[in-house]
Amino acid sequence: MSDFLANPYSLFDIQGKVAIVTGASGAFGALAAKVLAGAGAKVAIAAGNAEALKDTADACQKLAANVLSIVARPTDEAKCGEIVAKTVAAFGRVDILVVASGKNDVSKIVDMAPARFLDVMDANVTQSWLMARAAGKQMLAQGRGGKVVLMSSARGKLGHPAGYSAYCASKSAVDGITRALGCEWGGSGITVNAIAPTVFRSPLTAWMFEDNEKANEVRKGFLSRVPKGRLGEAEDLAGPLLFLVSKASDFYTGHTLDADGGYTAG
Length: 266
Description:
Elements: H1 3-6, E1 18-22, H2 27-38, E2 42-47, H3 50-62, E3 67-71, H4 77-91, E4 96-99, H5 114-142, E5 146-151, H6 165-184, E6 190-197, H7 213-223, H8 234-244, E7 255-259
Parallel strand pairs: 1-2, 1-4, 2-3, 4-5, 5-6, 6-7
């Protein structure tokens, strides 16, 4: 009998692994940091908002995790290198990268200045590419594989009538990076995958979960497209994340996992 059959949970064991999470002050980044910390990983968290980053660090430390806070955004090659270097200096290596940094800017295309479009592309695409490059260099040098998880969206596959031309384009590009690096690093033991949620509970979407006329109307229209019949919760992203950063996903790479209740299936 294979070892994992005696203890299938061992496939998801990341005790002692070293993880970097960028965008760790945001909704998904903070959740990712806490999930990895709770699972026993050593976590280097990075974000530009020092106060919010401290909140994430405090939450991780309450889970008895070793936490390193880095006040930095992955805005250029130097910053990404700094995040990786500080992680290696503190913990000795990098096993996991979760890129949760990014942004949206909603506007009809005719009203959106090109600079605003490029800003969204930079935050979601260029910074994902730069951070994957920096962490990937370290993982390749270590020669022991690794796990990279990028943040996509249902909007990487679907359009939106409300002015999402920049966001949809950026998330489609994230899916492309995921596939390309999955192929490029496939033989090295480094897996590259993405999580693509639809609406899930966060400070930005809290209003959609409220019981009032506006929220009920918007939610009803949205849920008519969701086979599961509800909006997403934190645990709906936590499970896929743990899968993608653990041994359980060793044969999965270049894949974008739709955490959307079936939204993109119909």
